[in-house]
Amino acid sequence: METTLAAAPARRRAWMWVIGAAIAAVAAYRLAASTGDGAPEAPPGAAKPAAPPVPVVAVAARRGDMPVYLSALGTVTAYNTVTVKSRVDGQIVRVAFEEGQAVREGDLLVEIDPRPFQVQLAQAEGQMARDRALLAVAKRTLQRNRELLDQGIIARQMYDDQQATVGQYEGAVQVDQALIDQAKLQLTYSRVTAPIGGRVGLRRVDVGNVVRASDEQGLCVITQVQPITVLFSVPEDDLRAVLDKAGDGRALVVEAYDRAGQKELAAGTLQSTDNQIDPATGTARLKAVFDNADRALFPNQFVNVRLRLDVRENVVIVPGAAVQRGAAGTFVYVVTPDATVEVRPVVAGPEADGETAIASGLAAAERVVVDGVDKLRAGSAVKLRGAEAAGPARTPASAQAPPA
């Protein structure tokens, strides 16, 4: 019994040695796995394995002409807008237009009951006939009084009174003529015609409605959309350049694009500039006119406007995606003949249609990376993808050295 109790601590110590050895074996195995299954470590100073080349898309820079634009947001406005109103009171007996119809100047739009005005005209003409007859009688009487006065039969006062009567009737005839003209004018106003050519909006009256000349609503609205205008604003700092170019007598081209700025809707010319700068925004309003032959522009439509100020000729042009910006400034990744990339600082110029002009730092025919730049560093090995891999890259002797 005592022997059994004495052997128990020895057995526990033996099991602890076994467990410790197992733990040490597991730790050694994991260490070996992390260092490559026990492979020997590389000696100090040995070169690390080269990273695989980065697949990129490169495009050769080209020479060409680059337009210089001012971009702005614009609102399409009708060249002319007219609210057609009645100039007389009366009941509508005919609506001669369809909603949305294109009309020409002078086309009949609405006809108001003409009978009241016809009656007024007949009454004025009857009054005129009566007064003319009285005038004729007064003139004959004046002629007889003249003869009697010469013979000394009547007094001078009688002749003068008759002469005044003739003058009164002549004045009455003139008033009658004015009443006739007024009645004819009212009769003309009973036919409401289009004051301008354009597009008719939704009608605001129906047959049977009684309209008055004092109504503010009007009968319809006509907008002239051929030609049509666009209002937009430019910063006051750019206004001087616009005025200088417009002052040379040249027609500045203005292009209108859709909301996304991708599709060109119409091209026109700058028509005028406002005579003052808005102090609240520091901008000046400009107006451009477009033929709008295909009716692509519609009143109150929002468009992206580009005003072409100038054209830079024979400059180096690259896709806009090639131009990168960092803490050191603007740069591009240039593909060298040894299939690596060089970080080249450049001075970027104007941009248009997804392309950027390079003022300095890059030569034509040099290849710049446009896709895959997020994985590149100076000296990174690259592999060209697609058709760009066919021709060799060229690095002229005049190229700038990469930044340190």
Task: Record keyword descriptors for this entry.
404 residues, alpha+beta, conserved putative lor/sdh protein from methanococcus maripaludis s2 fold, Elongation Factor Tu (Ef-tu), domain 3, 4 domains, 4 helices, elongated
Written overview of the protein:
By secondary structure, the protein is an alpha+beta fold. The model is unreliable at 1-7, 33-40 and 387-404 (pLDDT under 50). It has helices at 2-34, 115-151, 156-189, 236-247; strands at residues 54-60, 62-84, 90-95, 102-103, 108-112, 191-193, 198-200, 210-211, 220-235, 253-257, 264-278, 283-290, 302-319, 324-326, 329-335, 341-345, 347-352, 355-360, 367-371, 382-384. It has four domains: 1-40; 56-66 and 314-389, conserved putative lor/sdh protein from methanococcus maripaludis s2 fold (Beta Barrel), CATH 2.40.420; 69-79 and 221-312, Elongation Factor Tu (Ef-tu), domain 3, CATH 2.40.30; 85-211, Helix Hairpins, CATH 1.10.287. It has four helices and 20 strands. Strand 14 (324-326) and strand 15 (329-335) form a beta hairpin. Helix 2 (115-151) runs antiparallel to helix 3. The strands form four sheets. A six-stranded antiparallel β-barrel has the order 2-9-12-11-10-13. The chain is elongated and about 170 Å long.
